[in-house]
Amino acid sequence: AQKVTQAQTEISVVEKEDVTLDCVYETRDTTYYLFWYKQPPSGELVFLIRRNSFDEQNEISGRYSWNFQKSTSSFNFTITASQVVDSAVYFCALSATGTASKLTFGTGTRLQVTL
Amino acid sequence: DSGVTQTPKHLITATGQRVTLRCSPRSGDLSVYWYQQSLDQGLQFLIQYYNGEERAKGNILERFSAQQFPDLHSELNLSSLELGDSALYFCASSEGQGGGANVLTFGAGSRLTVL
Questions:
Q1: I need a surface site. Which of A84, B7, B86, B95 has the fewest CB within 10 A?
Q2: Which 3 state secondary structure label does DSSP give B11?
Q3: Between A33, A44, A100, which is nearest B56 by CB?
């Protein structure tokens, strides 16, 4: 069975602060994929990143960065210099090869960025 | 705009009724997925179709059914509705058959309220 845990239910920061969203996963598969999706107040789910289990290289995209550590089964997401537009619910998700993209989602972390 | 179109955006109905949610996938995508987002259960995979055929089933109730038509649009039918069926129903699409690497593109969702 697969499981994704996002222990932080809600985080509030002031604009320009850095914030890290934690994601811990469990799977018995050796090949798997990890994802982050963003759900802004408008409700849609927006894809942010995909990482496969063989690629532990960290990734940076603008103010976003991701830290994948297989040893601790974690795939954390950091937003640098947060902005009000970053306010959303962020979901971490996991899928294994051959599972027809049945994404297992975490419960989400609600990020509130204020001025 | 993700390219995945869902209708209706909002739907209010009574217990015991039946509703149909419709989804048009992104151009070129052959797979369609349905997910349910509720406060109790979070984001849960319901079912996947690839090119008209059912490919994977998740936690879909027997009162729910889906199909994908030759033009690749999909419909999710929910019958004998109960209060607990109130949720945001997402459709997503992907290009391939649905291996774990597939990135799903989500629609804006259909919010169902059962009174």
A1: A84
A2: strand
A3: A100
